[in-house]
Amino acid sequence: MIYVVAGVDAGIYTGYAILDLRGELIASGCMKEASDEKIVKVITDIGTPVLIGADTNPPSHFVKKIAARLNIKVCIPAESMSKAKKREIGDAIDDPHIRDAYAAAVKAFRRYQNRLRQIELLPLPESEKEELKRMAIVGIRLSERLRCGPKTAPG
After folding, report:
1. Half-sphere exposure of 55 toward its Cβ, with a 13 Å CA cutoff?
2. CATH number at residue 100
3. What pLDDT, in 10s, does the model give residues 92-138?
4. Is residue 145 part of a domain?
5. Three-state SS across 71-113?
6. What are phi and psi of 50, to 5 degrees?
7. Does this model's pTM top 0.90?
8. Which residues, in sequence order, are bridge partners of residue 25?
């Protein structure tokens, strides 16, 4: 099972970008007059979403609706992202709708990046690391999964 972070740029043309939990772009596209059902299907056909990124604050009703259907959090920037910032993040992407969705996904991923890197360094099988990353993003305490033994004082 692959967990993903999605970014969605809603409008007449709806862009989407999907990252794995290493921050790599694994899928993107743009649809004219896409329904929330279509976008949900695209995302879930690729992986199990754990977070959706928005490029505006407040997020669009469409993005909130997708998050509600997927039962995941929306990661909202402190303030709406500028066109310049979105171009800086997605400079290799020509389509503006996909670029905006990618920037939203990257911004959401970056909020958890340090925790995800720490998990990546653990000496565990990849499948367990992926599950721990999912837990970190959705807000489940990792100690519940790791079942750490009691800490003892040195000496």
Report:
1. 30
2. 3.30.420.40
3. 999 999 999 999 999 999 999 999 999 999 999 998 999 999 999 99
4. no
5. CCEEECCCCCCCHHHHHHHCCCCCCHHHHHHHHHHHHHHHHHH
6. -120, -10
7. no
8. 19
